Amino acid sequence: MEVDTTTLKEKKVNPVITFLQRIPVIYFVMLLIFVVIGIVQPNFYNSRPFFGFLKRAAPLIVVSIGQMFVIISGEFDLSVGSLITVCAAVAAKVIFNDPTKVWEAFAWILGIALVVGLINGLVTTKLRVPSFITTLGMMLILTGAISIYTRGAPQGGVTDNFRIYGRANIGDSIIPIALIVTIVVIAIAIIIMHYTTLGRRIYAVGGNPIAARLSGVRVDMVKTLAFVLCALGAGLGSILIVGFAGMSSLIIGKGYEFQSISAVVLGGVALTGGSGNVGMVVAGALTLQALFSLLNFLGLPLPIRLTVQGSIIIGAVALAAWRDIRKSD
Amino acid sequence: MQETSANNKPILEMRDVTKAFPGVVALKDVSFECKPGEVHALVGENGAGKSTLMKILTGAYKADEGTVFLHGEKVAFEHPQQAQRAGISIIYQEFNLLPDRSVSQNIYLGREPRGKIFIDEQRMVLQTEQLLNELEVKIEPRTKVGELGVAQQQSVEIAKALSLEADIIVMDEPTAPLSLYEVESLLALVRRLQEKGITIIYITHRLEEVFHIADRVTVLKDGTLVNTAPVSEYTSDELVHHMVGREFDHYFPEKADPENIGDVILEVRHLDAGKELHDISFNIRKGEVVGFAGLEGSGRTQLARVIFGADHFYKGEIRLNGQSMRFRSPVEAIRAGFGFISEDRKKEGLILGLPLKPNVSLPSLDSRQFLGFIKRQEEQEVVEEISESIDIRAASKRQEVQFLSGGNQQKVVLAKWLATNAKMLIFDEPTRGIDVGAKASIHQLIRDLATQGVGVMMISSELPEIIGMSDRVIVMHEGRVEAELNSDQMTEKDIMLAATGTTQDNGVLTGE
Amino acid sequence: MSTISGTSRNFFSQVQEIFNRIPNMGVYGVLVLIFVGCLIFVPNFGSPENVRNLGQHSVALGLVAIGQTFVIIAASLDLSVGVSISAMAVLASLMMDGRTSMMLPTVLMVIGFGTFVGLINGLIIAKLRVNPFIATLGTWLILQGFLFSRFDNFAGGVPREFEYLGYGQIGPVPVGVIMFFLVAAGGQLLLSKTRFGYHLFGIGGNQQVSRLSGVRTARTMIIAHVLCGLGAALTAVFIVSRLRAGAPWVGETYTLDSIAAVVVGGAPLSGGIGSITGTVAGVLIFSILNNIFNILNIGAFAQLVIRGIILISVVAFYSFRLRK
C-alpha cells in the first residue's frame, strides 16, 4: 500500500526570514570571504588589483559553468583540465606566431572540444561506463596525446590577437575583455538553463532520470549534450588562460577539473544532480578564487589550495548527506 | 492437511494492533494469533494490511498501538535482526540473497562457523547439506546462488530460515514466481516444515493453495480483521465474500451513456512480452473507461509499460485509431498521443526537486518551443489554466512538488498529460495513497476526460474504484486476460474470482 | 533424492570447481598469452635480468594493488593511495636520513601513517556516508596540498642497509618478490578463509542484505580501507628502498594503476567479486606492459594514452558482461 507521507505545510513565518532562507548559502560565504580579504589586504579593492582578480577568475568561472551542465545532469567531467592543455597546445602549434592563423586556431579548439565532449557523452551513456571512469580515462588519453603531439615541449606560440581575450582590457579602460567574455558566457548559460528545452531537460534528467524518460526525454542525448557544453567551456577557458598566462605549457590546464568541481560544489549545486543554477556556480567560482587569493595574502604556499579544495569537496558532500539523513528521519 | 498439535496455546499473539501512516490507516485493532505447528494462511486484497502486519511482527515497523506476544511473553522488536534471533524469519518476494556467493555462504552470512582464526568451511558445507537434505532439496552447497533457478533460490531462503532455528516462518506470496511444478514442490516443502513443528504464516492470493495447505485462515480487509477460522469451515465463495464485501465511501461519477461511446481508439491483438504477458487482446473505445483488475503480479503494469514503449514486446499488434504502432521508447508513444500515469508517482511520475511548471510542461515541451527556446508566455498560460481547472493546491508556484500532498502530486502528474492533449491515457493506481476528497476529484477528472473523447485505461487494485468507475472491466491473471465483464457482470465477487484464477463449477473448486 | 553426501570431492565436483573459477582463468589465460607473445616477439624479454626486473616492478604495484583489492570488493574505492605513497616515501627518507638506527622506527611510522589515512577514509565513507570517490578524492587533494607545499624534490635518503629490501636477494629470488608473495598469500587467506573476508564480499554484494544478516557493515568497510592504507605503506617502504630517497611525485601513477590492475584481475567496481590471485595476474599484465614499453622505448606519454584506453575498455567490457 503506497504511503502518503507529505502534507501541505502552511506556515505563518516572517517573510523576511523566509526570503533570507531562500538565498543560497554561498552568497553569504562569498560576502564573508571578500570582507576578510578586505581586512587582510585592503589594497585588493583598488581598481587595478580588483580587475586583475576578475581577469584571473574569468577562466575558472567559464570552465565551472561548463562543469555545471554535466553535474546538474547527474555526471562528472574529470577531463576538462587535460582538454584545456590540449586546446592550448594546439592553438600554439597552429598559430605558430602567425597572427593570421588565429581564427584557424579557434576552429581547431571548437572542433576538438566537440569531439571530446561527444566521446565522453557517448561512452558514458551508450557503453554505460560510469562518467568518472570515462572522463578519467579521457584525461589520461588527452594528457598522453598532447605530450606525443608536442614531443615533450610546447611548440610554436600564440600571438597578441589571441592573447587579448585573456589578457587585455577594452581599449584604454580598466575593464578586461575577459570580463566581457565571462559575462556573455554567463548570459548564454542562463538562457540555456532557463529559457530552452535543453536546460529544462538537463534539470529533469539530473533530478530523476527514470521519470524523465517516462516523460519523453531522450536522456542519453541530453547527457551527451551536457558533456559537449562542458567541453566547449573548457575550450573557451583555454583561450582565456593562455591569454592571461601569455603562453601555453604542458601543465597549463592542470587541476582545472578539480577546481571546477570544487567551485560547483562550493556554490551549493548538488553532486547528485537536478538542482542548482548559474548564479550559484559563479559565486562558487568567485569564492574559490578569492579563497586562493586569501591564502596567497596569508603567505601560504601554493599547493595548499589543493588541501582547501579537498576539504571543501568532502565537507560539501558530507553536509548534503547529513541533511538527507535528517530529512528522512 | 495436518492436525494441529496437542498443545493449543498460541505460539504467537498479536493483540489490537493499530498502525497509521500519514493520510492512511493501515491497520486498526487487528488481532492475530497462531498455534504452534500450524500453517496459517493470511489473505486479503492488495492494501488490506497483510504486509504491514507482518512487518510489525518482524520488527521492520513499530505498531502505534497493540502488543505482540511470543511464546506467551511480551515482545517489541525494533529491528528485523531481533525478530530473527527470537525465532521469526520472513521470506520476502524479493529474495535477500547474494547472487555471487555460494548457497552455504549465503545461508551462514554473518554467522559463519569458525575455528580459532579461519572459517570452518567444511563444517559450513556439511551443515548446509544437512539442512538441504532435511528439506529434501537437491542443491550442491557450493553453487553460486545466482546460478540457481527462482524456485531453488527460494529453497535456499527457506534453508536459511531453518538454520536460524526459526519457530515461525512467514512466507509472503511464495508461489508468485513459481511454475506449476515448482508450486507442488514448495507445498510439499511447507508440509515438511510443518512436520518439524514449525509454524508457517502463509500470505497468498491463490485461494486454491489456502485450501490445499492451510489449517486456518485469517482474512483482513481494509486494515481490519474480518475473521479467523479453520479452513474447513470455508468455501472459496465465502472466502472471497469475506475478502471483498464492503460499503462505498463515496459516490462515483455517473458512468458513460452507451450512446456516447465512440469508435475503437486502441486495439491490442495477441500481445506477448517476455515471460510476463501472454496473448493479450482487448479494445478501448472513445468515451469509455476500461478498468483493469487483477492481483499484484498479474501483469497489468507490465502491459501498460509495454503499450507505452517503456519496455519491449515481441509479438502482437497495437493499433491507435486504426494505425499499427510499435513504440520503441516513451518519446514515440507521447508523440502519438499516449500518456502514462504510473503507480509510483515519486519514483516515476515526478521530478521531486523541481516546482510545478517544469514538471507539468515536461512531456509537451516540443510543442511549445521555437528553435529550442521555450515559449514562456504560452507555457505559463497553459500550466495555469490546467492547474486551476483541476484544482491543484500549492502554497506557492515556486514550491518544489515534493512538498505537495499526495493528492496534489497526483494531480500534477495528471496535469502533465493534459498539457500534451493526449488522446489515450493509461492510469496505474490513480488514487493510491490519496485522501478521500482528492480521490473523488480525480475520479471526476477521469470521467470528464473520457466524456471528452479520450480513451482511458485504468489499472486499479481497489475494487470499489474498478466497479464505480469502469464501463467495462478486464480482469488479468498471471499475464493473461482472464475475463472481460460488462456493467451488469461486474460484481466484486466475480472480479475477485477471476483475479485469483478460480472459477466455480457446480460449487467445486477448480484451480488453475 | 539426497544431495552429494559427505565432503567427497568426486571428479564432477572438482571439474565444476575449476569451471567456477573461470573469471580468474580468463585473466591468467591473457597473462600467459601476453607473456609467451613477448617472449617470442620482444627482444631481450626472456633474459634473466629482465625477468628479475619484471619481478621487482611487480612488487611495488602489487603491494598497493592487494590493498586496493579489499576496498574494491567492498564496492568502494581508494583514490588517495598514490599521494599517500609519495608522502610516506618522503617521510621515510627524511626520518631515516641515512641512519640505520632509524630503520625500524621509520617503517613502523610509515605503516602507522598509511593505516591512519586508510582509517580516515574508512570513517568518512562509513560514518559520514560520503561516496567513496568523493571521499578519497578529497583526501587525495588534502594530502597533495600539504605534501607539495613543503617539498618539491627528493629529500633525505635511506641508509645502504635499507636498500636490501629493494635490491637484495635470497638465493635467486629478490627479497621484494618474497615479500610480495607472502603478502599476497596472507591477503588471499584473509579474503577466502576469514569472517572478515566473507563479510567483505557480503557488503560489496549487497549492503542491505548483509546488514539484515547481522554483518557489521561499517566496521568491515573501515577495516577494508585500513588494509588498503597498509598496502600503500608497504609499497612506499619498498619503493623508497629502490629509489634510495623519496620525492613528492613517486607515488603518482599507483592510484590508477592499482585500480586498473584490480579491475583487469576480475574484480568489478560494483563490488562483491574478486580475489588476490586475480589481482596478481592483473599486476603482472601491467608490469609486462610497462616492461615492454621500456624495452621498445615507447615514451612515457604514449604509455599514458594506452593506459587510458585500456582502463576504459576494461571497465566497459566488465560492465557489459555483468549486465548480460
Kindly list the characteristics that best describe this protein.
heterotrimer, B: 512 residues, alpha/beta, Rossmann fold, 3 domains, six-stranded mixed β-sheet, 17 helices, 26% strand, globular, disordered C terminus, C: 324 residues, mainly alpha, ABC transporter involved in vitamin B12 uptake, BtuC, two-stranded antiparallel sheet, 14 helices, 1% strand
Describe the structure.
The complex is a heterotrimer of chains A (about 325), B (about 500) and C (about 325). Helix content of chain A is about 70%, strand content about 0%. In chain A, about 55% of the residues are buried. Chain A is globular. Chain A has a domain at about 55-250. Chain A has helices at about 15-20, 25-40, 45-70, 80-95, 100-125, 130-150, 160-165, 175-195, 195-205, 210-215, 220-245, 255-265, 280-295, 305-329. In chain A, helix 2 (about 25-40) packs parallel to helix 13 (about 280-295), helix 3 packs antiparallel against helix 11 (about 220-245) and helix 7 (about 160-165) crosses helix 11 (about 220-245). In chain B, helix 8 packs across helix 17 (about 490-500). Chain B is built from 17 helices and 24 strands. With about 500 residues, chain B is of the alpha/beta class. Chain B has a 6-stranded mixed sheet with strand order 6-7-8-3-9-10, with helices on both faces. In chain B, strands 16-19-20-13-21-22 form a 6-stranded mixed sheet, sandwiched between helices. In chain B, strands 2-1-4-5 form a 4-stranded antiparallel sheet, covered by helices on one side. Chain C is mainly α and about 325 residues long. Chain C has one domain (about 50-325): ABC transporter involved in vitamin B12 uptake, BtuC (Orthogonal Bundle). In chain C, strand 1 (about 170) and strand 2 (about 175) form a beta hairpin. The two termini of chain C are about 35 Å apart. Chains in contact: A-B, A-C, B-C. The interface between A and B is large, with 31 and 57 residues.
